Amino acid sequence: MPILTKSQHCAVDILHKLHCVRHSQMHVMLQREFPGVNAEVQMRRLSHLGKVKSDGGCYCWPGCAPNEERLSALDIMLKMSGENPLIYDIPAPPCKLLFFVTKGPVLQAVRLYFPKPGQETAYLAAVETEQLPPGYIAVFYIREQRQKTLLKISRPHIFVSGNGEDGYLFQRD
């Protein structure tokens, strides 16, 4: 069994947790942890070892396929976290991604949701009752502007619209 480098181990951990990431996302994530490492070379080596499969523009955990919502959630996390180290997890649904951003010396928890039109009430109930982590910000990826009026909650929240190709628009309520 081959021994993995720290950067390869990090890439394997990322894929094990997220199942699939775009090539560009993996490169950013590895560069934040290991500046100067050539992510493409590391991923090619992992592919030869059978630890990763390359599916078009994505790296996937063996047996997994790209999930567009998860990929968009990662785009939003990378955009919101700036240059800061990444701390993230995949929580229970309906939340797509839980991550932390640095606000000065404080870590701010962010829970990301993808409510489909017509399901806003169920998401409101989930967001209002979710208490962990305390003081988190809810981020809603919306497909229609009318969803903003249906997603009025008591906690701090941000609306995101758009896509990775054309960019994302972040709006505070």
Number of strands: 9
Q: What structural category do the secondary elements indicate?
A: alpha+beta
Mean pLDDT: 89
The ordered string of helix (H) and strand (E) elements is HEHHEEHEEEHEHEE
Q: Looking across the biggest beta sheet, what order are the strands in?
A: 4-5-6-7-8-9
Largest sheet entry? 6 strands, mixed
**Percentage of β-strand residues:** 25-35%
Uncertain regions: pLDDT < 50 for 5+ in a row?
none
Shape category: elongated
Descriptive account of the structure:
The radius of gyration is 17 Å and the shape is elongated. 36% of the residues lie in helices and 27% in strands. It has six helices and nine strands. A six-stranded mixed β-sheet has the order 4-5-6-7-8-9, with helices on one face. The chain folds into two domains: 6-60, Arc Repressor Mutant, subunit A (Orthogonal Bundle); 68-172. α5 links the parallel β6 (106-113) and β7 (137-141). It is an alpha+beta fold and 173 residues long. The protein has helices spanning 6-18, 23-33, 39-48, 68-81, 120-129, 147-150; strands at residues 20-22, 53-55, 58-60, 87-89, 95-103, 106-113, 137-141, 157-163, 167-172.
In short:
The protein is an alpha+beta fold and 173 residues long. The protein is built from six helices and nine strands.
Give me some keywords for this one.
173 residues, Arc Repressor Mutant, subunit A, three-stranded antiparallel beta sheet, 6 helices, 2 domains, single chain, alpha+beta
Topology:
Elements (H helix, E strand, L loop, with lengths): L5 H13 L1 E3 H11 L5 H10 L4 E3 L2 E3 L7 H14 L5 E3 L5 E9 L2 E8 L6 H10 L7 E5 L5 H4 L6 E7 L3 E6 L1
Helix pairs in contact: 1-2, 1-3
